Recover the amino acids of this structure.
């Protein structure tokens, strides 16, 4: 698992006050306070248009629609990050369980968690990501994203 000190990205530095001004209250709760949005009632759970999903806080490209799948968990699910170095993974012992937290490597924002419970995917992984943590950019016809 990649540790924070191993990330080669220069991390965006902002005060929490600056983040509060840049993000909606729900985005701040999830991205900065490590909250979770409600399952099945979010923007990208059933969204399967072609394009890129970026960090809602800083714009870093995180996931491609090519790796998105319907997992039934209630949140957008991906079997791989677009570029592995764009996310960091950390052990998360909150809420009385052990999970692997996924954060944006550029700004440190909380995105969700990754689980090794997706046998129908090429990687066996399920990146379970909060919709509010993402911004979607549709692909342009004829362009590679």
């Amino acid at each position: 698992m990649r540790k924070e000190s191993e990330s080669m990205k220069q991390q965006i530095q902002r005060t929490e006050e600056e983040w509060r001004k840049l993000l909606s209250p729900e985005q701040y709760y999830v991205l900065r306070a490590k909250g979770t949005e409600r399952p099945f009632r979010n923007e990208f759970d059933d969204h399967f248009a072609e394009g890129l999903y970026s960090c809602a806080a800083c714009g870093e490209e995180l996931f491609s629609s090519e790796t998105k799948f319907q997992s039934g968990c209630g949140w957008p699910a991906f079997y791989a990050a677009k570029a592995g170095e764009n996310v960091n993974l950390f052990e998360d012992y909150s809420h009385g369980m052990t999970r692997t937290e996924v954060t944006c490597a550029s700004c440190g924002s909380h995105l969700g968690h990754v689980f090794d419970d997706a046998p129908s995917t090429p990687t066996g992984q399920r990146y379970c990501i909060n919709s509010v943590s993402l911004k979607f950019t549709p692909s342009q016809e004829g362009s590679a994203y």
Remarks:
- The chain has one domain: 9-138.
